[in-house]
Amino acid sequence: MAEPSYLELLSYGGPNGWGDDLLWGAWKTVQVAASAYTVGIVLGLIGAGAKLTGRRAAFVVSDVYTTVVRSVPPLLLIVYIFYRAPAGLQALARAFGSDSNIDLDPFFAAVVALGFVEGAYTTEVFRGAILAVPLGQIDAAKAIGMSWSLRTRRILLPQMLRYAIPGLGNIWLFTTKDVSLVSVVSLSELMNAGKQAAGWTKDYFFFYCIVALCYLVITIASMVGIARLERWADRGVRRA
Amino acid sequence: MLQAIADLYQQFLSGLPEPAATLIDFVVNLFPSLLEGAYVSVQLLLLSGVVGNLLALPVALARVSRNPLLRVPSYLFILLMRGTPLLVQIYILYYGVGHILGQVPLVRSSLLWRHLDAFWYAAVAFAINTAGYSGEILRGAILAVPQGEIDAARAFGMSKGLILRRVILPQAIRISLPTFSGETIALLKSTAIASTITVYELLRVTNEAYAASYRFDECYISAAIVYVALSYVLTRAFYFAERQINKDRLPVKALKLNWARP
User: Fold this and answer.
1) Are A116 and A47 in contact (CB under 8 A)?
2) Which burial class, exposed, middle or buried, applies to A67 when counting CB atoms under 10 A from its CB (0-12, 13-18, 19+)?
């Protein structure tokens, strides 16, 4: 049998076509990234809040979280949390009095692991953004009798989001790339699809370059989106 | 002397309850191999950090050049390095390029091939990647040097090379040092990726220790502690370097206040 051409290798379906596997892998990568990013934003809001409440215990917990996660390789954390998450959730369920057996889907374990890592970076972005909002405005909101939730919703969040968007955009770019690390715990995302195709055909160089190209497309599309979002967030603000 | 310490250690262990004693004994025996792994990680970090940051200089200079033949390739290189995961880059180099090199008889029979193990592939991949990331940082720092100073240097009749050496670079390095500190820690964390191509660095050693003992928490948490310690040392070293390089500018007290701000 003749060697299949490169175009045939990338065809959708068929005996030699890896195009569908790669495309599905890319879709899965975007799914994992988006889910983990959401987890990261929730953790980041909690973490930033904990750092700024002025309560010592909350600050210490949040500070240990960001310091440790940001100085340990994501690869190590992902492996650790991926395998620890099911037992951890089980213990949590036990603590709440449930004795059902939790069977954690690898997808969710990967999302939890990656989200936990990104949450530490998001915490720092939100912390900086909250501090960038002038304190006088919060005081003014207090002075006119706004409740905590109202001044958070109307004064703090809208303004802090504008400062946070560049940092959040960077974290999104890092998250999509960090999804490739999840391939070491054999979730069938883009990197793993590439590994399988490369291992099967022995066309290592070709397939890893295709994987890189897919990532480049995701990154460039994200960069365009982030630039638009930044422009939208800066509307009505005078440029220096 | 050593015997005395060992005796004291055994005495200490026998005084503890059973699960704690085995745990402590396991971790104490694990640390020498972890430190060996950490040594390889640090070697990778230093090698690729130094080479990569030296390569970053031409990348940054090409990026700010007015000549599109220099500027465009540099832009594409930086985009490629920052737009794709390091894991993919390292796989392209180790499996892709390695596979192709292995098929060339001249390379295969050469003396170099025998020494070309995974460590060197990882070091090269990290160095090239660092050149991309640092190149972009340095570009920003070069652009941040006030144009008036460059005009003044030109008015003095300084040559391009002299302006670069005496005016632009010293300030660009000063401006970008805080960012480089973060980048270097990012590079330390990236060295863990070398474990996926069989380099015996810290994470690889940890994986194997776990496979041999099935003590998951002990192995990975110990490794995490070593990484935190390494990051801390790097942070302090950069902080020291920043203070040294800015000595003439601000009193130390003001400098501290400056860094405390978000």
Assistant:
1) no
2) middle
Cβ pair A191:B95 closer than 8 A: no
Per the structure, the complete domain to which residue B134 belongs is given by 31-260
Distance from C-alpha of B83 to C-alpha of B76, rounded to nearest angstrom: 10
Amino acid at A104: L
Question: Could you report the per-residue pLDDT of B76-97, keeping only the tens digit for each?
Answer: 999 999 999 999 999 999 999 9
The token pair that represents B259 in the structure block: 């860094």
In chain A, which residues have pLDDT < 70? Answer: 1-3, 12-16, 239-240
Residue B193 DSSP label: G
Task: Give the mean model confidence (pLDDT) for residues B115-131.
Answer: 93
pTM attached to this predicted model: 0.88
Rounded to 5°, angle at Cα B107 from B103 and B108: 65
Task: Domain count for chain B, please give it.
Answer: 1
B187 assigned to some structural domain:
yes
> What are the pLDDT digits (tens) for B161-210?
999 999 999 999 989 998 999 999 999 999 999 999 999 999 999 999 99
Q: Is residue B2 part of a domain?
A: no
Three-state SS string across chain A, please?
CCCCCHHHHCCCCCCCCCHHHHHHHHHHHHHHHHHHHHHHHHHHHHHHHHHHCCCHHHHHHHHHHHHHHHHCCHHHHHHHHHHHHHHHHHHHHHHCCCCCCCCCCHHHHHHHHHHHHHHHHHHHHHHHHHHHCCHHHHHHHHHCCCCHHHHHHHHHHHHHHHHHHHHHHHHHHHHHHHHHHHHHHCCCCHHHHHHHHHHHHCCHHHHHHHHHHHHHHHHHHHHHHHHHHHHHHCCCCCCC
By residue count, chain B amounts to 262
Is residue B49 included in any domain, yes or no? yes
The CATH code of the domain that includes B201 is 1.10.3720.10
For testing the chain B interface, which of A51, A63, A70, A76 should be mutated: the one with the most B CBs within 10 Å? A76
- What is the complex's ipTM, to 2 decimals? 0.88
* Residue B5: both structure tokens together: 């310490």
Task: Report H helices in B145-168.
Answer: 147-155, 160-163
Overall residue count recorded for chain A in this entry: 240
Residues in chain A within 8 Å Cβ distance of B193: 73, 75, 181
Residue B16, in any domain of the structure = no
* Domains of chain A, start order: 32-187+224-233 (1.10.3720.10)
Taking the C-alpha atoms of residue A175 and residue A169, their distance in angstroms, rounded to an integer, is 10
- The amino acid at B35: L
Task: Find residues 68-97 of chain B whose CB sits inside 8 Å of chain A.
Answer: 79-80, 82-89, 91-92, 95-97
Chain A closest-CA separation from residue B132 CA (Å): 15
